[in-house]
Amino acid sequence: MMSEKKESGRGLAFLPLLVFVFVYLATGVILTAKGVDKAFYQLPSPVAVIIGIVAAFFIVKGTVDEKFDMLVKGCGDSNIVIMCLIYLLAGAFTTVSREIGGVDAVVDMGMAVLSPKYASAGLFVISAFIATATGTSVGTVVAMTPIGVGIAQAGGLNVILAVGAVIGGCMFGDNLSIISDTTIAATRTQRVRMKDKFNVNAAIAIPAAIVTIVLLVIYGSPETVVPAGEYSYDFVKVLPYIFVLVSALGGMNVFVVLTGGILFSGAIGLWNHTFSMLGYSQAIYGGFTGMMDIFLLSMLMGGLARMVERGGGIDWILGKVSQVIGNRKTAELGIAGMVSLTNIATANNTVSILINGELSKKLSLKYGVDPRRTASLLDIFSCVFQGLLPYGAQILIAASLMGSGTNPLSLISSCWYQYMLAIFAIISIFVPYADGYIRRHPLEADPD
């Protein structure tokens, strides 16, 4: 490999990142105007990144060999490789656990203990638990929205409010789950441990969830209380999720956690004859292939970010941002604002974190923002807007499952948790009530 030459701050070098965002955004807007369903998800994000990389080859200075050197080093950065391996293992765990009936068991367990009197609040809590356990907000929306609609119609609830509670719970889990795409991206880009990010994040997310639950209890009670349905579940199938959650919070190495979860779920599947050894291996591989989109996106984004950084683009934008940032609080507001705007543009919270990860890390170092807090802010504000976008996957899917004629815009006002999360996160910037964990625990390098 040839040695790299880093340029000083150069605005043109930042353009390839803007090309990626513009292509992604413009495609979604054009397809939306044409009436295409889920328009913002039609262009595969790795293809959009390739367009940005091609632009970088024309813009960044150096020979073709030097540019390939930058690209390959970025794609092969140790943190990028670790991130991609975690994605693969998380996908395998999710798929194997789903194959043994784990998701259905978690849903039925939640519904078995749900009091119809507190149906809206219960839907939020159950959705939050499922999304935290499985690491997928979209999967939870698919599983819980029909249940929420059915309970609301049977119990005299406001259907829009019930589905809004479901979406809110899903975004709670998406934000906090240690196996969600957003958590993996936020912790790896900031080089922090998942356990630490969880604890910092929870100090903001849990109060927001409590306020949401109280509001749902007060304003979401049914007009008539109907008896709960009969739900049976196999608690054994829930155990792999509990193992992964508890062991991760206990500080266990994330590779050990996810591998253990895959083995745990596989043992249950083999024991109850859900699949054979061959079927088990196919489920694992199916989980791998299901993560190919985010795998390729992360790898290629690493390469694009390296080219932009070595071309001076990151230093240039850092200099521009620094002109309006003067201290830690404004740096945190800047990080929150950047990831929020990017998410609005791309309708993808993981993409938003990856785009802003390196710049946020530099801002944190310059203005003394703890990287655990930076990871938390990136994840929080990307999830806030992802759960409010009428063209985002979560609201689009929920609206489609509610039946034809449901306008996605009608759901936005009922997604109370996302508003509460944003409010508590902004308060935490000006009144650092959530920094107790940071003060008590000195920063440690991520052992992974």
Task: Give descriptors for this structure.
single chain, 448 residues, mainly alpha, 22 helices, globular
Explain what this protein looks like in three dimensions:
- The chain has helices spanning 15-33, 45-59, 64-75, 78-99, 102-113, 119-134, 137-155, 159-176, 181-190, 194-219, 239-249, 254-271, 277-290, 292-310, 313-322, 328-346, 349-367, 371-386, 393-401, 409-412, 416-430, 436-440.
- The protein starts with 14 loop residues before the first helix and ends in an 8-residue tail after the last helix.
- The protein has one domain.
- The mean pLDDT is 84.
- The chain is globular and about 65 Å long.
- With 448 residues, it is an all-alpha fold.
- It is built from 22 helices and no strands.
- Helix 4 (78-99) packs antiparallel against helix 14 (292-310), helix 5 (102-113) runs antiparallel to helix 6 (119-134) and helix 8 packs antiparallel against helix 10.
- Its main location: membrane.
- It is a multi-pass membrane protein.
- Keywords: Antiport, Cell membrane, Membrane, Transmembrane, Transmembrane helix, Transport.
